[in-house]
Amino acid sequence: AGYNLNIPLPPRTNGQGYLKALDVALERIHSFDPWALVIAAGFDTYDGDPISKFDLITADYAEIARRLHALHRPTVIVQEGGYRLETLGKNAVAFLEPFSV
After folding, report:
1. What is d(CA 33, CA 31) in angstroms, rounded to the nearest whole number?
2. Each residue of 13-37: pLDDT tens digit?
3. Phi first, then psi: what are they for 4, rounded to 5°?
4. Distance CA 88, CA 58 (A)
5. DSSP characters over 58-93
6. Which residues touch 17 (CB under 8 Å, ≥6 apart)?
7. Which of 15, 33, 54, 66 could form a disulfide with 45 if both were Cys (CB 3.0 to 4.6 A apart)?
8. Which residue, among 77, 72, 76, has the nearest Cα to 92 in the 3D structure?
9. How many helices (H) and strands (E) does the chain have?
């Protein structure tokens, strides 16, 4: 109890709005100070995904990952979601790349 954080976002949330919510979550993570992270990376937030209600672009996934990677914690990334097959690969690569350094 007390370690769950839900941040509902409205339809058509873009990268700027998503990153603002992520910053709130990162503050909570920082205060919790976990020894490791498990990230559920869903790319169904991409603008044009058939089930998406959000408007994220590929560059947003790279920035999200950079901010998560900056926590400097051992990290497991589980991909779940992303149904626009034409862009799924580039979005996943954009997200994973910051963790490869």
Report:
1. 5
2. 999 999 999 999 999 999 999 999 9
3. -105, 140
4. 9
5. HHHHHHHHHHHHTT---EEEEE-----HHHHHHHHH
6. 9
7. 54
8. 77
9. 3, 2
Q: Is the pLDDT at 69 greater than 90, yes or no?
A: yes
Distance CA 55, CA 44 (A): 10
Q: Which neighbouring-strand residues pair with 38?
A: 76
**Of 65, 83, 50, 88, nearest to 18 (Cα)?**
65
Contact 16, 23 (CB under 8 A): no
Q: Which amino acid is at 7?
A: I
